[in-house]
Amino acid sequence: MKRINKSIVYIGLFGMLSFAFSSCEDYLDREPNTMVSSKDAFENFDNFQGFIEEVINAIPDKEKCSWCPSWNWGDDEIFNPQGDDRLTHQIDLGNYRKWYQPTADLGNWLKVSNSSPNANDPKNLSLWGNAWYCIRKVNMGIAHIDDMTIGTKAEKERILGQCYFYRAWWHFEMMEWFGGLPYVDTLLDPNNIPQLPRLSFQECAARCADDFRRAAELLPVCWDSTEVKGQDEKNQIRANKIVALCYKGKCELWAASPLMEHGAQLGALASGVTYEYNKALCDSAAESLGKALHIVETEANQQYQLANFDYKDIYNHQKDPSNVTPGYDPVWCYSDLFYTYNQKLKNPGGNEAIMRTPSNNNGNCSNWATAKVFGPKMANIVAHDKIIHQPTANLVEMYGMANGLPIRDENGNFANGFDPTHPWKDRDPRFYHDIVFDGFQYLNGATSDKEDYRYCELFTGGNMRPVADGSRTGYFIQKLVPHQCNEVDKWYQDGWGDGFHAVLNYMRLADVYLMYAEACAAIGGAKQKSKAFDKTAEDAINVVRARCHAGPVGGSGENMNSKYVTDSKLFMDEVRRERAVELSFEGFRFNDLQRWLLLTEYPYNTKFSCEFTRGEADEFYQFKNDEDPKDAKVNGYHLEPIITRSFGTKHYWFPFPDQDVYLYEGFAQNPGW
CB-hemisphere CA count at 13 Å for 488? Predict the structure, then answer.
């Protein structure tokens, strides 16, 4: 039985039970396969910190987990049919079990197989496999903290704080997809199958929140400002007090959300349940997030700061260093949050990144795994695989007007200044940064064989609309990968090893403002605020909107429509729309729709294309006098459904691998699976 136990649990839920001090071997430069004694591993701060580093290095890089990665599983993105085997489409079909099937690489980062916490290749990192390994590792660190015989009290606190943080973080990342888990907070015997009870999401979240609290009490606000610095070049990716408070608040907000409060159900939008949160948990979330934001806004060194959104040419993401709005980071601009170019492979994120992956660009993964799956493939405009990430038209409509108002009212009718004959005009500035639309100049450099594609033809029947190798929605995404990553401008080839580098961060400061706004709004609407922070829910959203020069919630001046502030449900709709826009394509949309009980509800269960024809005489499409494509006139603008998800309540949670739920009776499969 022991032999079977060890072989099963190593690859499944309790893979963490079979453990070696591999990270210490690397850190201490030991010979391969040499076991490191606890005395060597834990006796001083440097060695112990090396032991912890592996837990950080094991964090998956969602954009580089596969040659053709898949991470947007909500209603925000769709692939062309060549990507039907990717997990994005399999989730559209309701085939959630595909996430753990080892026979094919579906481009997902949850995967069970190919996991290696020590991997230099990001394609070998995964959430499910690494989480259990890392949880055991930090539990071992907590158990051995008193073996640190050489070191100060502050050094012990730093180690212990990191252990508590990463124990909670790995649990919580899995909970977002699978619901409540057994909370493993002790070292388990590798020779016996454990019998830990599976907790509810709220019970498990309470355990996470307690660990995040302890981490916040033990960790510094800024590693570089203390006598315990560790390796300075890595301090940006280490957990600190602010990060711990942010995750405590996120964990509590998720636990307060409608799905966790009321359970999976259909019809939540019609019944209003989608607006019903656990107010006590929201109050605690607002307090935690408010404390973090208060520190951020008052600390002298401005360790965290929103990046600026000042562009000389927004379509080409060309910064304007001479005109940076006061109050925002003058060094990092919005594009730098998602990718860097010719900056010696500097990790994106800047001072806005709260939780980072320590990703590097080994093997030019950004160029091969990320940069070549966002643009059109006809005429070899973008080389390599034929798969294309594309924004759904419904997500693009979430980008409201420059005046701050949504383009549709609560009844689904066009409103607030949106003109369907000029659908790209006067939109939220982030629309022009993130979205490639009809008439957009896609190719900047000289070309002899691709000239017909210099300007995008994304109208119905246009030359970039073939479903197989163009856009099936009428748009492309350039938020994460700029359009210059093509065979003419060659951003993904220029300066190999020192060129394009893309990374998705797990949390950034704008997200924290929006989570705070949501927690406050769920308690008392737009004017609610926490005791720890002086901004209201409305203020917090407007901080994020002001950064990109978009209008405030409810508009202003002659564009004001106060109902979006005074009506608590409409205000919550604006909070949610702001999350959809600000965090678009960064991998958050599925979990948001899930916890709001909207995954099964129309229109959130449907992916749409945008259909239209160009205006008379190709108005504004001659591009002879620097006409701006946003001013173009179109006819017949409307949305058409591409696919509707037939989801039931079981689709609110992913299934566990069968091999894990068979381990012991108390570890139950998710309902319906």
Answer: 22
Q: How many residues does the chain have?
A: 673
146-158 burial string, b = 16+ CB within 10 Å, else e?
Answer: eebeebeeebbbb
DSSP 496: T
650 compared with 495, residue with greater pLDDT: 650
CA dihedral of residues 442, 473, 373, 350 (deg, nearest 10): 80
pLDDT at 4: 24
The CA distances from residue 209 to 173, 246, 252, 315, 648, in Å, are: 13, 10, 7, 42, 30
Percent of the chain exceeding pLDDT 70 equals 89
Cβ proximity of 623 and 315 under 8 Å: no
Q: Is 391 strand, coil or helix?
A: strand
> What is the residue whose two structure tokens read 């099963």?
8
Contacts of 90 (CB under 8 A, 6+ apart): 96, 98, 106
Lowest mean pLDDT among 18-22, 444-448, 508-512, 615-619: 18-22
Q: Beta-carbon neighbour count of residue 233 at 10 Å? A: 7
Distance of CA 131 to the CA centre of its chain: 18
Residues 445-452 have a mean pLDDT of 95
> Residue 28's pLDDT is what?
26
Rounded to an integer, the average pLDDT of 631-640 is: 96
Q: Which of 155-161's residues contact partners 24+ apart within 8 Å by CB, and which partners?
A: 155/45, 155/228, 157/218, 157/219, 158/45, 158/49, 158/218, 158/219, 158/220, 158/228, 158/230, 159/45, 159/48, 159/49, 159/52, 160/218, 161/214, 161/215, 161/216, 161/217, 161/218, 161/219, 161/239, 161/244
Distance between CA atoms of residues 83 and 385, nearest Å: 10
DSSP state of 378: G
**Weakest-pLDDT range from 88-97, 399-408, 659-668:** 659-668
Q: Is 621:455 a contact under the CB 8 Å cutoff?
A: yes
| Residue 542: strand, helix, or coil | helix
559-602 tens-digit pLDDT: 999 999 999 999 999 999 999 999 999 999 999 999 999 999 99
Listed in sequence order, the residues at least 6 apart from 168 whose beta carbon sits closer than 8 Å to its beta carbon are 207, 208, 209, 211, 212, 215, 247, 251
5-8, long-range: CB within 8 Å, 24+ apart, which pairs? 5/191, 5/192, 5/193, 6/190, 6/191, 8/659, 8/663
Question: Is there a contact between 159 and 48 (Cβ–Cβ < 8 Å)?
Answer: yes
Assign domain 2-73+112-239 one CATH number from 1.20.1260, 1.25.40, 3.30.1520, 1.10.10: 1.25.40
The mean of the pLDDT values for the chain is 89
Measured torsion, CA atoms of residues 207, 212, 214, 217, in degrees rounded to the nearest 10 = -160
